[in-house]
Structure prediction request, 406 residues.
Amino acid sequence: MTTPSFDLGPDHLDLRAWVHDFAADVVRPAASEWDEKEEFPWPVLEEAAAIGLYSLDFFATQSFDETGLGIPVTMEELFWGDAGIGLAIVGTALAAAGVSSHGTPEQVGEWVPQMFGSPGDLKLGAFCSSEPDAGSDVGAMRTRATYDEATDEWVLNGTKTWATNGGIADIHVVTAVVDPDLRTRGQASFVVPPGTRGLSQGQKFHKHGIRASHTAEVVLDQCRVPGSCLLGGKEKLDARLARAREGARAGAGSNASMATFERTRPAVGAQAIGIARAAYEVALDYAKTREQFGKAIIENQAIAFALADMKVSIDASRLLVWRAAWMASQGKTFDSAEGSMSKLFAGETAVKVTTQAMQILGGNGFTREYPVERMSRDAKIYTIFEGTSEIQRLVIARAISGAPIR
Prediction:
């Protein structure tokens, strides 16, 4: 077991410098263009693939980092560059994580490499879980998966929404209901291979922020996938459903997915920290050079105190994220929902810091001539996706009280 440390070692320092240089030299110069276009930034992804940043090897190496800090360090620096392009680069990793978490070794080996491709032949993955009527309430999911024993195929029907890379991905990972009576415990995940008939892109969303990241509906209409595309396999699914039915009769009802969410939320928190830090740095530099009434505005206590509070919140967020990431890497139990704590605090911090940065810049902060306007738009999603701030508070409250708070 590794010992947690606030000092990054040489490997992490090199990683941080490498990603930071890419974010500064490639991502930031392209950020405004792709935000305005609201299109997927394929040329930037090609550059990320060329240096090995967008690759299966990179994400696998960082995921197995025994300190847990490789992913948070990467996320913070990349999203310091730009959140929309950052999500375009890391969006596939969520689908890869879905296969890695639930699939057999054979399924991981077959499907995950196909989500990344290689320089000059890029591929994408999409994780499809949310639905028009099932966001925070995952028990309301309506997408159904029915097994056709005669052909050994699963037939998927339903509509997914808010899917990053949805419809343009090569590999879609879809969560569907196989036993409606069991609600969340009656769900399973499936790989939908490239070119599968019955899968199509629905509405593409035009968003307030993170515009360079492609977000769309995914429609599944009599979409047939081989039995081998059920992640984990049918034997494992049947055994799990049998246990769930027995538990339902006995009155048990825990949601096994909670532990997985707790372990992935620190990475999302690290993204929010990157946005907040970027906005803070712009505001700090501006306050040092902008003069009013014959002096730099940072000499005004109101401005100086605001910047001090911004810095405190950013550093506190980072410590919460690093703690949760380290706990996940060590397989520790999140008794107080530490993963949700990190995502909640970091997401709220990103909104507050970017808003304050706009305030410090005054009218300039409200224009697209300065990046804090875009950063503020990008930050808001971190109180909404991957579990709203209200859901994070619910998870934390249940963890610390043991009560079925609703």
The chain is about 50% helix and 15% strand.
